[in-house]
Amino acid sequence: MANGIVYLVGSGPGDPGLVTLRAREIIGAADVIVYDRLIPEGALAWARPDAELIYVGKLPDRHTLKQEEINQLLVEKACEGKRVCRLKGGDPFVFGRGGEEALALVEAGLPFEVVPGVTAGIGGSAYAAIPVTHRAVATSVAFVTGHEDPTKDESGTNWAGLATGVDTIVFYMGVGNLPLIAERLIEHGRAPHTPAAVIERATTPSQRVVTGPLNGIASQVEQAGIQAPALIVVGNVVGLRESLQWFDNRPLFGRCVLVTRTREQASALSEALAGLGAVPIELPLIQVQGLEDYGQLDDALGRLAEFDWLVFTSANGVSAVRARLAALGMDVRDLKGPRIAAIGPGTAEPLEQSGIRVDLVPERYIAESLAEALIAQGVAGKRVLIARAEEAREVLPEVLAEAGAEVVVAPCYRTRPATGAQEQIAALLAEGNVDVITFASSSAVKAFVGCLGVEGLGEKLQGIIIACIGPVTAQTAAEFGLRVDVMPEEHTIAGLVEALAEHAGGV
Ligand code: SAH
Predict the structure, then answer these.
(1) pLDDT number for residue 154
(2) Catalytic annotation on 77?
(3) Which helix (H) or strand (E) holds 55?
């Protein structure tokens, strides 16, 4: 049994952000993970690809494995010399049967470690904006199982003590018994109007909270159709939710938002959306590819000093030029000469991060505005190099040429539909799980329509909010018959997210 060990690990109430560092470390190192139903989504993705994953959770009305069998499994795996992570929701020692498992390990003479987790009663209450203790309101809190039949005489619960001796009472596994729990507490002296809350799927994007007086909460919960897993919180602290609510009232709370950017670019948008409570679903529709022939770009880079302006119209263009410079044995020092223009802050940022000062960013982040800004600088007779995608609108070179500039367009990358996108979109729409679709470029719109087909597009997207980063993207969407609901004044990712939040608040 060399080196075999069992870690009894709590993984918190559901939000993956509430998993402790230690838990994550153990999940990532374990040979075997024995896990329950209520673990945070995505937690198993941290496991080693070769780890053995064994589900031992309960199904609605039966145990898949009896507790003794789970104990036995842990002992067996550890005896084989395995590092075993016994992964549970919340905290392993709070209604988690971790104590029983630890005793079995002691009996077998096997080493173990306990990794406490954020228990649902504390984490879930916090996300429902209920502090379980509060100065002058509650000086004590009890965690109680609501699973016991409150009508049976030999109930282990001291109802009289609870009803009158504890300020905040948090019941786990109690929704099914809620009418009886409320009745028992009132019977034993708790005021019928004591505030109560029931918190369903706490700390997740589908959290729901119902509040009401103790003597009315059961019918409210039934009406709302609240299901397990849910917590019941009884006590005056529930009243604080009204002032403290912070999680489930965020502007995009629980909304599923499709992020259609390339994988490399998606994360900034996803993070901003998640910060406002949305559930971002990253679905790259386009992928950036290199070119077979960089002749034009290489030629231009070789004689950069001849140009007055070097113009970037996307962050992809910046990366492509950087890569090309490296391939040619050059670096940013060779960009000396032309002044640098960027279409918007998203393009200027990677330039500045590479130590390249950007001389010009237009007021509005579209090609027309960029052309105007360059013309205002006096481009007549000047040489302008535009580094951009192979396929792009011609407005910028055309307008500059009309104004008397000598324009060279150097394609430096191309975009293509991403593989597998079509099936994924179809599946997501079929599940009816998409609330918002975001487009940050015309090419994304085109790729999206390419996946779904123009026919019956409006119908397929009925009820879904369409958000476009700017007027050009919006126009492309409109040309395909899409109704654009949201378009920010400022054509940036931050602007897009803000406009979405405003839209959600205003309708
Ligand atoms: N060891 C766990 C509790 C396991 S008992 C812990 O410390 O949190 C399972 C019960 O926990 C559920 O019936 C429910 O009452 C509660 N629970 C767990 N996760 C929850 C969640 N995300 N939202 C609401 N209740 C939850």
Answers:
(1) 64
(2) no
(3) strand 52-55
- pLDDT for 1 beyond 60: no
Which of 88, 173, 248, 382 is catalytic? The answer is: 173
Residue 92 inside a domain? The answer is yes
Residue 265 pLDDT = 76
- Containing structural domain, residue 83: 5-118
Identify the pLDDT of residue 153: 62
Q: Is 435 one of the annotated active-site residues of the chain?
A: no
Per residue in 371-403, pLDDT (tens digit) is: 999 999 999 999 999 999 998 888 999 999 999
The residue out of 90, 118, 146 marking a domain boundary is: 118
Catalytic annotation present for 330: no
pTM for the model:
0.81
Q: Are 165 and 139 in contact (CB under 8 A)?
A: no
Confidence at residue 267, expressed as pLDDT on a 0 to 100 scale: 85
Does 331 map to a domain? Answer: yes
Say yes or no: CB of residue 499 within 6 Å of ligand 1.
no
Phi, psi of 234 (to 5 degrees): -120, 130
Give a yes or no: residue 330 inside a domain: yes
Dist. CA 372 → ligand 1 center (Å): 59
Residues 293 and 412 in one domain: yes
Q: Classify residue 297: in a domain, yes or no.
A: yes
Minimal CA–CA distance to 397: which of 367, 365, 442, 358?
Answer: 367
The number of domains in the chain is 4
Ligand 1: does its nearest atom lie under 6 Å from the Cβ of 143? no
> Probe ligand 1: pick from 18, 20, 36, 38, max atoms within 8 Å of CB?
38
Structural contact between residues 260 and 437, judged by C-beta atoms closer than 8 angstroms: yes
Inform me whether the pLDDT recorded for 494 exceeds 80.
Answer: yes
pLDDT the model gives residue 279: 93
Task: Tell me, using a 6 A CB cutoff, whether residue 91 lines ligand 1.
Answer: yes
Distances (CA, A) of 1 to 43, 112, 405, 505: 28, 13, 78, 59
